[in-house]
Amino acid sequence: MPSPSTTSITIADAPSIARDYMELWTTTNPTLRSSLATKLLSEHTTQFAAEDNLVFHGAEAIEATITKVNTENIQQAGFDFVFDSAVANQNSVQIEWTILNGEGARVGAGRDFLLMAADGTIDSFYMFKR
Question: How many CB atoms lie within 10 A of CB 130?
Fold first, then answer.
């Protein structure tokens, strides 16, 4: 696994990374999702999801997981995952988001920590409910 970048991500980079990351999870367009997965993920990316202790390795497995979550929660259940904020710190970005039901009521929220690789892809990311 490549080591995370020693180059700091600027505060100006965080919104762009967060926008692409959120779009990766929320788009219902499979072509756009694959394009964003290619841009953000690599064969070395690892996803860690808290509470369930789920771990996924590599772009292919992670994209399949994202597609499943999108289909079940956005396309079928009608939830809306809304970006709240992004903050950069060294080689990482913290992203906070909220889940709204079909009536617009808040039904959940999360915080994801992305550790970026030197090539601009996500080295690993950690997902937490908040």
Answer: 10
Q: Which residues of 85-95 are buried (b: 16+ CB within 10 A; e: fewer)?
A: ebebeebbbbb
Model pLDDT for residues 24-67, shown as the tens digit of each residue: 999 999 999 999 999 999 999 999 999 889 999 999 999 999 99
Structure pTM? 0.90
Mean pLDDT value of segment 58-77: 98
Residue 4 resides in a domain: no
Rounded CA-CA distance 122/43 in Å is 10
Check which CATH number belongs to the domain holding 55 and give it: 3.10.450.50
Number of domains within the chain: 1
What span, in angstroms and rounded, lies between the C-alpha atoms of 6 and 19? Answer: 23
